[in-house]
Amino acid sequence: MLANATEESIDSRVRRRLRELRTEQGLTLQQVSERAHIDVSMLSRLESGKRRLALDHIPGLASALGVSADDLLGGAPAPDPRVRGVPVKRDGLTMWPLTNRGPAGGLHAFKIRISARRRKPPDTLHVHDGHDWMYVVDGRMRLLLGSQDLIIEPGEAVEFSTVIPHWFGAVDAAVELIAVFGPQGERTHIHQ
């Protein structure tokens, strides 16, 4: 796997981990240097980045800190996987993002609540590049798709090309659904 420019270098990561582990354990530079059999000034320069780490430093430093070499070399902690997006409200829709910003041009999932008041379609239906996928969790959704006027029940999913004029709303009560949009659909439904 190739490292990208924003990734922490191995040297920086080891220096950071060295400092973190030493301070977490309440150890001084002097204590670690004695345990690792490294001069304290050299350890200080290693930790501050004024001297480059050599592979032969790793086993002694890991042992001095009571961790494995893998722990000292280990990557940054995994990012928090929870999605914490802010809901967007517009045109009788409340949309919560269910995916974080992934690769550019990727698909994104949303939980959508259609207000019971969103029953009347606009005079002109939306058309845009892309593809939409929706799964109705609760309520009954009305989907206008070209010349079709469909009622989508809970537990049903729809998938369609968005170059076909389309609109979706509520039949008689609020509707909850999960939707997956590509970048064009997201721009049209979420950001417009």
What does this structure look like?
The chain has 192 residues and is α+β, with helices and mostly antiparallel strands. It has two domains: 10-73, 434 Repressor (Amino-terminal Domain), CATH 1.10.260; 88-191, Jelly Rolls. Helices cover 29% and strands 26% of the residues. It is built from six helices and nine strands. The protein has helices at residues 10-24, 29-36, 40-48, 57-65, 69-73, 183-191; strands spanning 88-90, 93-97, 108-114, 131-138, 141-145, 148-152, 157-161, 166-170, 175-181. The strands form two sheets. The chain has a six-stranded antiparallel sheet with strand order 1-2-3-9-4-7. It has a three-stranded antiparallel sheet with strand order 6-5-8, with no helix packed on it. A hairpin with a 2-residue loop joins strand 1 and strand 2. Helix 2 crosses helix 3 (40-48) and helix 2 (29-36) packs across helix 4 (57-65). The longest helix has 15 residues, at 10-24. It is rod-shaped and about 80 Å long. It starts with 9 loop residues before the first helix and ends with a helix. 19% of the residues are buried.
